[in-house]
Amino acid sequence: MENLLRPVIVVGGSVVLGVLIGWATDRLLSKADRRHPETPLWGLLRRGRIPYQLVLCAAMLRGSYDEAQLLEDHRTGIGQVLTLVLIGSAAWLVIRIAAAIVETSYSRYARVHRDPARVRRVRTQVSLIMRVVSAVVGVVAVAAMLLTFPAMRAAGASLLASAGILGIVAGVAAQSTLSNMFAGLQIAFGDMVRIGDTVVVDGEWGTVEEITLTFLTVRTWDERRITMPVSYFTSKPFENWSRGTPQMTGIVYWHVDHTAPVDAMREKLRDILRECPAWDGRACGLDVTDTTPNTMQVRALVTAKDADDIWTVRVAVREQMVRWLAKEHPYALPRVNTADATLPPGRLPGQASSRDRDGAVHRM
Question: What span, in angstroms and rounded, lies between the C-alpha atoms of 14 and 11?
Answer without folding.
Answer: 5
